[in-house]
Amino acid sequence: MYLESQKQLAETLRDVLQNKYGVQPENVPVEIPPDLKFGELATPIALQLARTLRKAPKVIAQEIVAALGTVDGFAGFEVAGAGYINARLERAAFVAETAQAALPKIAHTHFRVANPPHALVEHTSINPNKAAHIGHLRNAILGDTFVRLLRAAGHKVDVQNYIDNTGVQVADVVVGFLHLEKRSVDEVRALVAACEQRAATEGHTAAIDYLCWDLYARTSQWYAEGTAEENGARKKLRYDTLHAIEHGGNETAEVAELISTAVLKRHLETMLRLGIEYDFLPRESEILHLKFWELAFEQLKQKGVLYFETEGKNKGCWVMRRPGAETAADEVDEDAKVIVRSNGTVTYVGKDIAYHLWKFGLLGRDFGYQPFFRYADRECWISTEHGVEPHPHFGGAQAIYNVIDSRQSDPQANVIQALRGMGYTEQADRYIHFGYEMVALTPSYAAQLGYQLSEEDRARPYIEISGRKGFGVKADDLMDLMIQAAKAEVVKRHADWDEAAVMAVASKIAYGALRYYMLRFTRNSVIAFDQDMALSPEGETGPYLMYAAARIRSIFRKAGTAPEAALAELAGMAELGRFLTGADDEDIWALWLRAGRRSMVLEQAIATSEPAYIAKHAFQLAQEFSNFYHNHHILTEEDAGRKKFLLATAAVTLHELVTVLAWLGIESPEAM
RNA sequence: GCGCCCGUAGCUCAGCUGGAUAGAGCGACUGACUACGAAUCAGUAGGCCGGAGGUUCGAAUCCUUCCGGGCGCACCA
């Protein structure tokens, strides 16, 4: 609602400027003033035009206000400060329309886009060789939330989780199974099956991903703990194993397939706990076996992006210029990125270029598809060499978002550079590296988890999770710990609830707390995770937001009416203005204004690829409601009309809060 | 050496395309439950926005430079 008012004012201003001064500024800024006393919208346009029009800003502002006259939806305009134009909204109309928009039927048609953009979001992408950890959770939660935002805005979105099932990390656990533990293929197969059975009864700590977590650590250690000669042989074994897996069609590759598939299933289960689902799982093995690279290589050579180096350190390689590289034409570009090695094999970036050509539908070849994992209402597909028919089609997107941590911005930039060099500039512009910083632990939480910290460590703002130092938290363990902690709080307050009820609510609180904590920080800020901070009922946390919603629901239970009914009643009320103009009513107006701000915040969050804006918005909404709740007693209000209005205010808050929390992937319990 | 990110209140962080008195949470201190859930709310203290130049009517925001911190820069995946 707010967004519509803002756009309308900008348009009207544009007309006025054109008619009166014959100017067409690139953009007409319409902002939200720092304080309600300045109105609900404001523009500094007169200040901007002062120079070109050679007039005092205040004079221009007055002229514009005069020319604006009356505008639908606005109560008036005034000149303030050095030359601001402040706009006051027609409050009653704004409230009525915001309430209307919250009614179910209208809400659904609100964001129907005629020709929806097709976006592809890739996130999670965990090496399928061990259990997911806390860092992976930030990736998946960020990606999943962004998917929800795009879908809320009416985009068509495919969610992909890229699986590197033929990489060194998988090779390492395969080395562990075959050479440290000396198991045969059949033994590994039996072990995978046994783990699955045990996990079904004993829980996920008995599952294959937990087992691999330890084996992977042991193998990594084993590479370095022998004599120099032994270690050399072990390194060779590692790369021979890797190459056998890449090549396929042998027992080593079969073990890799068994392990990576079983671990992948576990990752999907882990993420499903947080409501995170995928549409398609493209695997590295198919990119290799379906020879995506050969097609890409032809294109790259043809378009001159790759050239064969005949001099210098990269002699004998096919290389590509790095973005922003400047070298004279006759000089050897020693800094160039190698795409094909002198032995003829392709590097990681090369494979990634091929994969991204596929994403944009520019490769001319497709994966085979087969169903892999069943969700409540849909199927998750996986790539395969020879797929089933019929199958859905993925790829060919107009825009892509890669949720990958910031450290990988260099290879990402190389892929974008290659696309640009091939003339796919539009695609390069819509290739978004959705980067984010790492998740660490607060020193106190690291200590709580049992890690030994030095004096120096304790003074740090955060403790980095590091395989080398042995700091790591499995995602499932973390969620279990959080549920236990939440459970203790729920039991304290609801001694009469049965175990199932307590667990259901405790899980919602734990998952919501976790998701909110991962989302409240902007992407390029390091998160120092702390369970107690995330679960705190006070402050900017998930539980605080859920509590606000639970309290509103409680009001409606006591009032004996439903939020929808309260909103519907408001629609029929006349003279809403009388509830919005009193000296004590400013906080109510502020709340409606916040409630009407949803689409504005959504647009901003998508434009900047920053889900944290939504988290912030949800918090402010809850906070303003709590303020309102303490200032106005709803159920004892004697003025019947005013009581209805207060109830509708609570109803619109609940509706907005629940909607926005759903975008964040957070469910709020009825009571907590 | 080159490139990217960061430096805002005691701590952790917001601050939208430059705009009105720089905000929030936590922590500290004061208050508010015989009214809808106190897992709450209200208030107070706390800031030369890393330093210095510059552009602008206007800079936490843009440019230059320096200081301090983090991360990248493989014929590894």
Would you give an account of this structure?
The protein has 672 residues and is of the alpha/beta class. The chain contains 27 helices and 16 strands. About 1% of the residues have low confidence. Among the domains are: 88 residues, Arginyl tRNA synthetase N-terminal domain (Gyrase A, domain 2); 234 residues, Orthogonal Bundle (Isoleucyl-tRNA Synthetase, Domain 1); 110 residues, no CATH class. The strands form 5 sheets. Strands 5-4-12-13 form a 4-stranded parallel β-sheet. Strands 1-3-2 form a 3-stranded antiparallel β-sheet. The chain has a 3-stranded mixed β-sheet with strand order 6-11-10, with no helix packed on it. β4, α6 and β5 form a beta-alpha-beta unit.
SS-based structural class?
alpha/beta
CATH top level assignment of one domain = Mainly Alpha
| Number of H/I helices | 27
Cα(first) to Cα(last) distance is: 31 Å
Low-confidence stretches: 106-110
**Rg estimate, integer Å:** 29 Å
CATH architecture label of one domain: Orthogonal Bundle
For the biggest sheet, the summary is: 4 strands, parallel
CATH topology of one domain: Isoleucyl-tRNA Synthetase, Domain 1
Strand order of the largest sheet: 5-4-12-13
In the CATH hierarchy, what is the superfamily of one domain? Isoleucyl-tRNA Synthetase, Domain 1
Mean pLDDT across residues:
92
Beta-strand level of the residues, as a percent range? 5-15%
User: Care to count the β-strands?
Assistant: 16
* Helix share, percent: 40-55%
How would you sum up the global shape?
globular
